[in-house]
Amino acid sequence: MRTLYYSHPDFWGHDTGITHPESIDRLHVIEQALSAPEFSELQRISAEIPVDIQDIIGLVHSKTMIAKVLSTIPEQGYANFDADTVVSPGSKQAALRAVAAVCDAVDRVCSGQNTKAFCATRPPGHHAMPDYAMGFCLFNNIAIAAEYARNRYGLTRIAIVDFDVHHGNGTQAAFCEQPQVLYASSHQWPHYPGSGHPSETGVGNIINVPLPTGSGGDVFRDKYRQSILPAVKAFNPELILISAGFDAHQDDPLASLGLLEDDYRWITDELITIADTYCQGRLISALEGGYNLSALANSVAAHVSSLMGNTAGQRVMHRMSL
């Protein structure tokens, strides 16, 4: 089965301003990387926004929060939810399309049409709390995908793995009392947003693995082998979702970890092995962070090449210099 790749011009319409790190250029370089011949077998999808999109968002977010997000988006210029979270006229369509993309991926994967998907969506989602937007994020795409899978397909064991350099406080908040969802996060500690201590365990379904400043791929891999990968296997998931942030890369300007492209390839391969063993290969990945454009393009290429079951990303990396 071909790996799904979700993109859409609406995501480019989310204009955060010329100095904001979560910029339109992030998707431009990803599209450039994944337009290489090595990725020609990707099944490229532009998900339609369903008429009940607000009800789907409401699986995670309160009606008050949804209304505030949509009403704050301006007809012209910019508006802010906080110092980091900027919206512009195109942000509504981008945010709705991002939710539509991850839910369409759930539909196709859970119905057996495909098994793997990468959603190159923005704005990102894992900081969006059930009751407010924050941290570049409006709606929590991955959390909504999990709830959508539970409600639409009756899944009772969904594992979310988050390797963004920042802790996904919004995803943790959404599921800290929901034992049907396992949330496992590796993240720089201490760092924004300040959550993600190992003592935060929910109802036994939350696993936080802090990485000290300066940690490289060896520490990252050891922590996954010791903690997160065994926990995901023990959970016996029916679906794996990935919050795929690439800002733990050594060249990222917003953090201080030392991962390289091959580390992203490695963790993707490990999660694919679990998916193939426990949940019929079903795995969906959605873009979170990653703010050095060259590192982002190369890391996504490595990640997607693993999802495709090939080494395409390794060849592309030699060409991407931005």
Write up this protein.
By secondary structure, this protein is an alpha/beta fold. It is 39% helix and 14% strand. It has ten helices and ten strands. It has helices at 25-34, 53-57, 63-72, 91-110, 141-153, 169-175, 217-235, 261-278, 293-308, 312-317, and strands spanning 4-6, 43-45, 79-80, 86-87, 116-119, 158-162, 181-189, 206-212, 239-244, 283-287. Strands 2-1-5-10-9-6-7-8 form an eight-stranded parallel beta sheet, sandwiched between helices. Strands 3-4 form a two-stranded antiparallel ribbon. A hairpin with a 5-residue loop joins strand 3 (79-80) and strand 4. Helix 1 (25-34) packs across helix 9 (293-308), helix 4 (91-110) packs across helix 5 and helix 7 (217-235) runs parallel beside helix 8. The radius of gyration is 18 Å and the shape is globular. The protein starts with a strand and ends in a 5-residue tail after the last helix. The model is unreliable at 312-322 (pLDDT under 50).
| Rg calc | 18 Å
What is the helix/strand order? EHEHHEEHEHEHEEHEHEHH
Strand line-up of the largest beta sheet = 2-1-5-10-9-6-7-8
Specify the overall morphology: globular
What is the topological layout?
Elements: E1 4-6, H1 25-34, E2 43-45, H2 53-57, H3 63-72, E3 79-80, E4 86-87, H4 91-110, E5 116-119, H5 141-153, E6 158-162, H6 169-175, E7 181-189, E8 206-212, H7 217-235, E9 239-244, H8 261-278, E10 283-287, H9 293-308, H10 312-317
Parallel strand pairs: 1-2, 1-5, 5-10, 6-7, 6-9, 7-8, 9-10
Antiparallel strand pairs: 3-4
Helix pairs in contact: 1-9, 4-5, 7-8, 8-9
